[in-house]
Amino acid sequence: MPEPAADPAAALACALGGFAAFESRPHLAVAVSGGADSLALVLLADIWARARGGRVTALTVDHALRAESGSEAAQVARFLAAHGIEHHILCWQGPKPAAGIQARARAARYALLEGWCGAQGVLHLLTAHTADDQAETLLLRLRHGSTLHGLAGMSALVERPWGRLLRPLLGCRHDDLCAWLRAGGTDWIEDPGNRDPRFERSRLRAEIAAGQGGPGLYRLTIRLGHLRRADERMMVRLLARFVALHAGRARINPDFAALPDRLAAGLLGRVCLAVGGAPRVPVETALARAQARLRAGRATTLAGCRLNPGRNGILVRREHSRRRPVPDAGVNVRPERTAAPLGPGPFQLVSPPDGPTYALSDSDSDPGACMLSPPPPTGPAGSRGTQWRGPGQ
Fold it and tell me: Alpha-carbon distance 181 to 194, whole Å?
């Protein structure tokens, strides 16, 4: 990430150019709350897409956490309609949590945004995270004991099963985006939650502003990003050397014990990330606790995984309680070799053309497999399920 830029249009064009691999007529989805950052992003992205024969669709999530949220979403809709930008309001429905509301709202927001993109076949979702958000993320993760992987902040590009999440404004400051909007005579909505001292990120934002530590934090985040990329290159080599991946599980070579603690912790964290499907690498304290138990020859849990040391190394598998339930009693695998996803990760269930419908369940005898059980009486003969182990197994 370069030093934060004062020209938002140039910064966005540079960032999107670096992402590359857009369609000849790109269709971009943009998350728009109505705040300054997201309004600037959708207007800038619209200019960029139109210049390439493409278009932008704006998506506003109404969390229904404040009485004003519905009218604010409608206000955003009117503003974007005046600029000829397609807009959809996605509503978070159902009861709202009493605690951890910001984290739950964030999860709901991304589920709605990504679900819309997947359903509509839109491959690029842009969010308006800025250099200020990056600095706040660094401090948050530092306070929570994050590893180097986390301290490098948010990634500008994240590959997702439906497409990719892009953060093209990480090279811009919030104040510069506000100045750009003012120059164009554009007003925005101020979310009172951004200043609510009940929320940790809001308190951090105030501390950064009071201490004027932003520029130093921006530079630190950039340096940590360079370090993380170097660390990732090393980790790829270590993973190839010490780890064997199978469907639903992994085995770590016993020679792994000779690695320095920091490298061993990084390898453990990434293996658990792949097997357990956690959203991020475990924090240092959790990694250190797991390493201590493994050195003592004791089984342990980490990031939704169970780790069992033995003569042949460490077997890593997802905790039984974390396995996702099958959506229906049976997964209807239709003709044309339809593929059904099997939890987070690259594994899929595929049937031949005209194949039967199979019921899916965990295999208690082999935690790395699932059971495909044809429902009687239409399924193939035999009542025992067939183990499926993923591609190439």
Answer: 19
Distance CA 257, CA 171 (A): 40
**What φ, ψ does residue 159 adopt, rounded to 5°?**
-75, 135
Which residues have CB under 8 Å from 279's CB, separation 6+? none
Distance between CA 244 and CA 251 in Å, rounded?
5
Which tens digit of pLDDT belongs to each residue from 14-67? 999 988 789 999 999 999 999 999 999 999 999 999 999 999 999 999 999 989
Domain layout of the chain by residue ranges: 8-211, 234-321, 323-393
Q: Are 256 and 267 in contact (CB under 8 A)?
A: yes
Q: What is the pLDDT of residue 119?
A: 96
In this structure, are residues 224 and 232 in contact, taking their beta carbons and an 8 Å threshold?
Answer: no
**Nearest to 251, CA basis, from 294, 310, 208:** 310
Bond into 377 cis (ω within 30): yes
Residue 258: HSE in the Cβ half-sphere, 13 Å Cα cutoff = 6
Question: CA-CA distance, 247 to 42, in Å (whole number)?
Answer: 41
pTM: 0.63
Quote the tokens at residue 12. 């966005």
**Contact status, residue 123 vs residue 25, Cβ threshold 8 Å:** no
65-85 pLDDT, tens digit per residue, is 989 999 999 999 999 999 999
CB distance 24 to 53 below 8 Å: yes
CATH architecture of 8-211: 3-Layer(aba) Sandwich (3.40)
Q: Assess contact for 91 and 108: CB atoms under 8 A.
A: no
pLDDT of residue 299: 96
**CA 69 – CA 386 distance, rounded (Å):** 50
Query: How far apart (Å, rounded) are the C-alpha atoms in residues 332 and 358?
Result: 7
Q: Which two tokens stand for residue 17?
A: 């150019």
**Residues 6+ positions from 227 with CB-CB distance below 8 Å:** 148, 152
Q: What's the Rg (C-alpha) of the chain?
A: 24
Number of Cα atoms under 13 Å in the Cβ half of residue 131: 26
Query: What's the CA angle centered on 219, arms 216 and 222, to 5 degrees?
Result: 150
What would the two tokens of residue 22 be?
């857009």
What is the C-alpha separation between 213 and 131, in angstroms, rounded? 12
